[in-house]
Amino acid sequence: MITTKITIENYLAEYLIGKYGTPDSKVVRLPSDLDLYHFVYDLLQKRPAGCPVDSGNLELVLPERREAHLPGGKPLATYNYIGERGAKILSRKINTMMRAELHDLFDENKHVYGIDYINSAWYFLRKYCIESLSVEALLKDYQRWRRKMRRKTSVREYKHR
After folding, report:
1. Which pLDDT tens digit goes with each residue over 15-50?
2. Residues 6 or more apart whose Cβ sits within 8 Å of residue 31
3. pTM above the 0.85 mark?
4. CB–CB of 20/29 below 8 Å?
5. How far is CA 90 from CA 20, 44, 63, 103, in A?
């Protein structure tokens, strides 16, 4: 098992650790059927010469793929580094994944079960042990997204007689 560490926003690291981490350690092992698993594999590159030891708030188990043993594949002994640019790209992907799950949870709880948004936000934070975000931040993000996605159609102006 080869791991690497990257630095991303704290709430995204907490989300991934809460969703895919193991209870006894903070190491994240992504399932092989997840798009993020393949995304991480594509971002792997050779460690630059003189690069310091990995540091960061998220430790990922690197994906081992069958193609690594074929000619042209990436052996993890050599390709075991995610650079700063790769960490930013991965951070955006994780952020999109987290927000999609959050918005889906809010909609389902409100319209199917009748649960308030604030209770859904508390549930989401407790489920993934996220301490870096507040309930108000999640609610504000959802309201912005809902306003942007569900714009009302413009209504024709009526002239008064």
Report:
1. 999 999 987 888 999 998 999 998 999 999 999 998
2. 20, 37
3. yes
4. yes
5. 15, 11, 14, 20
